[in-house]
Design a protein that fits this description.
CATH architecture of the largest domain: 2-Layer Sandwich
Radius of gyration: 28 Å
Structural class: alpha+beta
CATH superfamily of the largest domain: START domain
Strand order of the largest sheet: 1-7-6-5-4-3-2
Strand content: 35-45%
CATH topology of the largest domain: Alpha-D-Glucose-1,6-Bisphosphate, Chain A, domain 4
């Protein structure tokens, strides 16, 4: 009976100590790590807000390259969810993109294994002259009695080391993309070229239909006359890009040669382009062309140059003629005033 008595006292003491420890240990848990990246903010944000792209710098994919993962929703949009189910090191759970702002991206993480918990993670972006300071942060609440683990295991250090590894990989990734897309920014002399095009100001979400309609009209017209022909690629001339009002003013155009005096297509106008321009080449999907424009803007800022009034995109090849969007090539010209 004395043995049972001592066991009972021991259990009472254990429960008492556990209760004390649960109130002594913190329930809030925060981690932040930072790094400076020499790449445009647009490129860095692109790698962070798309879950498929985060796998390229995620330290946890290195821990379990065979983990199962899948998506729900449209990647890169608010509400998109990324699920993973891996080994004991990475566990199981899902991430949800909840906010994308100019200088901040927020993601909620729900852990299902090894134990259930919810964390709030975020990335912030602070632009300097030639770089971007990136902070990766983590905040979570550990319910009692699980918060006792914080007294015996340095989770801040463990997660912090993972974040440090991830940020180093993000830096290498973003700077590599910037170097690839930004290589060859050069000042060129544009030889005189004549265009036939249709100019319009419109909501940005109408651009795809606008280009489809007017490029089709232009090709149909040129193919049905014998006094003029196209001597270049489909081109877009941008005069205004107003993100605040979600509007764009642009001309869908084709370069033409021949007897220009006979050209007549209702609603379309001829224009001539020549002079100096800074040129960059974008390789890959049109969906990521903003990254190259961001790189050019950084170049202008670095050299204290005023942004021009006219930006030209020349689409070197046709999406229907390539096997992958990664093969697309776009020449971008920032035409000097």
């Amino acid at each position: 009976m004395k043995v049972l008595k001592y066991i009972g006292i021991g259990l009472i003491v254990l429960v008492f100590v556990t209760v004390i420890l649960t109130f002594a240990a913190p329930t809030d848990f925060n981690v932040e790590r930072s790094i400076s990246i020499n790449a445009p903010k647009s490129i860095i944000k692109e790698q962070v807000m798309y879950f498929e792209k985060t796998k390229a710098f995620s330290p946890w994919h290195v821990m379990d390259p065979d983990m199962k993962d899948w998506m729900e929703g449209e990647d890169g949009t608010i509400g998109a969810k990324y699920y993973w189910d891996g080994n004991d090191e990475v566990g199981e759970g899902y991430q949800e993109l909840i906010s994308v702002q100019e200088n901040r991206i927020e993601i909620d993480v729900t852990f299902l294994r090894p134990f259930e918990s919810v964390a709030h993670t975020y990335f912030t972006f602070d632009e300097n002259d030639n770089s971007v300071d990136v902070v990766w942060g983590f905040h979570s609440k550990f319910p009692r009695p699980f918060n006792i683990m914080g007294l015996f295991f340095n989770m801040e250090d463990a997660i912090g080391q993972d974040y440090e590894k991830g940020l180093i990989s993000l830096k290498e990734l973003a700077e590599g993309i910037a170097a690839k897309q930004g290589s060859g920014i050069e000042l060129v002399e544009l030889s005189e070229r004549h265009y036939l095009g249709f100019r319009k100001r419109m909501p940005m979400d109408e651009m795809e239909a606008f280009f489809g309609e007017h490029y089709a009209n232009l090709f149909a017209y040129i193919n049905n006359v014998d006094f003029v022909e196209s001597n270049g690629r489909a081109t877009a001339l941008y005069y205004d890009w107003d993100e605040e009002n979600n509007e764009v003013e642009v001309t869908a155009a084709l370069p033409i040669t021949g007897n220009l005096d006979q050209v007549s297509l209702e609603g379309y106008e001829q224009l001539t382009l020549s002079g100096k321009a800074y040129k960059a080449v974008h390789r890959g999907s049109y969906e990521t062309i903003e990254e190259t424009h961001g790189m050019i803007h950084s170049f202008y800022g670095k050299h204290n140059l005023p942004l021009p009034d006219l930006v030209v995109e020349e689409y070197v090849n046709n999406p229907n003629d390539v096997s992958s969007s990664e093969e697309l090539v776009t020449n971008i010209f920032y035409v000097e005033k």
